[in-house]
Write a structure and sequence with these properties.
The complex is a heterodimer. Chain A is mostly helical. Chain A is built from three helices and no strands. Chain A has one domain. In chain B, α4 crosses α5. The chains are: A mainly alpha, B mainly alpha.
């Protein structure tokens, strides 16, 4: 699977235009991921691989 | 005389994002960038608050703690106002939010790309997860839209059937029109 961040961002922006609540839910999720990744990136990667 | 009532015009959502609005946003960006370089956090917050209040005709208070975040954000001056305002949840009323975001679809996309890149730089394993989440939400929303459309069509159909059963041969508007003459 190619990691097309621009395409992902476009999808997110399209979602913002049709359903702001859904967008905000995802937006919060992204913030959470970012915070937890910054806090312990090694742990997150390891736990992901283990899962 | 026929009394004609114009059908209600649907109000467009949000302001038009061209002309003066765009200029205000541009002006705001330039001004604020300069302030960030020369003034203290509290001063910037105060000046920005009063600037926006005057421009938008509503009292707007900018939280000083938001300003420290802004210093670390490197958007071109003409592009950051909307996304940054949104990102840091300034206490800005909807009209100002619309204004700041207005005309900045491209900037929003750019901000979203930056956010995703920041996350994926730190944790690339989140890509698939994010993609699934976003597509899942998009599908749900699409499903809801289709469902709403179908319900509306059904309601319209039923209303049409009732209209056909209950109405006389001419339309009610026509009857009203005839009353006046």
């Amino acid at each position: 699977m190619s990691k097309d961040v621009v395409e992902l961002a476009r999808k997110l922006e399209r979602l913002r235009e049709v359903d702001i609540e859904a967008y905000e839910r995802l937006s919060r999720k992204i913030d959470e991921y970012l915070v937890e990744s910054i806090r312990a990136p090694g742990d997150v990667r390891e736990s992901h691989h283990r899962a | 005389m026929a009394k004609k009532t114009a059908p209600p015009t649907p109000r467009p959502r949000g302001p038009s994002h061209t002309g003066p609005l765009y200029e205000i946003t541009e002006d705001f960006s330039r001004r604020f960038e300069r302030l960030l370089e020369t003034k203290s956090q509290a001063d910037v917050a105060r000046e920005l608050g009063s600037y926006l209040s005057v421009k938008l005709g509503e009292p707007i208070k900018v939280d000083a703690s938001s300003i420290s975040h802004l210093r670390s954000v490197k958007y071109p001056s003409s592009r950051w106002a909307g996304p940054v305002a949104e990102m840091y949840k300034w206490p800005i009323p909807p009209i100002a939010r619309d204004l700041l975001e207005g005309g900045h679809r491209e900037a929003r996309l750019s901000a979203t790309i930056s956010r995703l890149e920041r996350l994926l730089d730190v944790n690339p394993t989140r890509y698939e997860h994010l993609e699934t989440l976003i597509e899942g939400e998009a599908l749900t929303v699409e499903g809801e839209l289709l469902s709403n459309k179908a319900s509306a069509a059904l309601r319209g159909e039923r209303a049409g059937e009732q209209g056909v059963r209950g109405a006389p041969s001419s339309s009610t508007q026509g009857d009203k029109d005839d009353d006046g003459e």
